[in-house]
Amino acid sequence: MTRSSTRPPALLAVLGAVGALLFVLPLVGLLEATPWSKLADLLSDDVVIDALRLSLITSVAATALATLFGVPLAWLLSRTRFRGRSMLQAIVTLPMVLPPVVGGAALLFALGRRGLVGEALDDTTGFVLPFSIWGVILANTFVAMPFLVITVEGALSNIDQRYEGVAAGLGASRLTVFRRVTLPMIAPSLRAGMVLAWARAFGEFGATVTFAGNLQGRTQTLPLAVFVSLDANRDAAIAMSLLMVTVSVVVLVVLRGRWWSGRST
Fold it and tell me: Which residue ranges run through the membrane (predicted)?
């Protein structure tokens, strides 16, 4: 590789540096505002522990659901042609651009106690999604799954399908081909999609507070606890924000180093 191919043009270097500052400066500001002498006491508070526990449980559960339903959905969108496919693709990606509070309201109108489906669910089973941990998981899944679907759909569209054809020609069933050939070929993209989905679920706020409420120990995740503490206890809000940043960065760095180092999709 020549020197000219590794040195960016001066203009790109300057613009890239400014772009990097857009992400670095807020973190520096957070670190500067952190009450380090009280940090341990702030993070050991029951509110923080409950919120962290709930955030981890619901984000992992949402990632599992997003994977369970998102991978088959991505396969359908990538490999099949049917009427309304383009509209379905747009609807699936809608939570990525929709204000989260609007998504939460839509979930409430559909699955709330008096919602389109929620009322019948409540009448027949007594199961109520809003203001419960299941509501948090569903809201997180709603906003996180599009990230996994788009990532996996792109991978499925770009892999060499001849390998799948060879496996099918040797007598493998379609499910076996998918499990033994397709999934290993898209594994890096699938893992990337899962991490993106987890990160989005871990930081979700708007849809959660609208659909599941903000009840400590039941539905109050870390983002919700930060929002409540901004007025009541600024130091606690800063400490929880730092905790969220730390957990997210550690997970993303560790998984990226383990799964993507030296690999390409």
Answer: 57-78, 90-111, 131-152, 236-255
Amino acid at 58: T
Task: Tell me how far CA of residue 209 lies from CA of 125, 130, 200, 213, in angstroms.
Answer: 24, 10, 15, 4
107 touches 100 (CB < 8 A): no
Query: May I ask the CATH architecture of the domain 56-216?
Result: Orthogonal Bundle (1.10)
Structure tokens at 115: 């919602």
* pTM metric for this prediction: 0.88
pLDDT tens per residue, range 93-104: 999 999 999 999
Structure tokens at 113: 């106690």
Give burial (CB, 10 Å; 0-12/13-18/19+) of 173.
Answer: exposed
**How far apart, in whole angstroms, are the C-alpha atoms of residue 96 and residue 147?**
8
The residue assigned the tokens 């994977």 is 67
End-to-end distance of the chain based on CA atoms, in angstroms? 22
- Nearest alpha carbon to residue 259 among 201, 196, 213, 191: 191
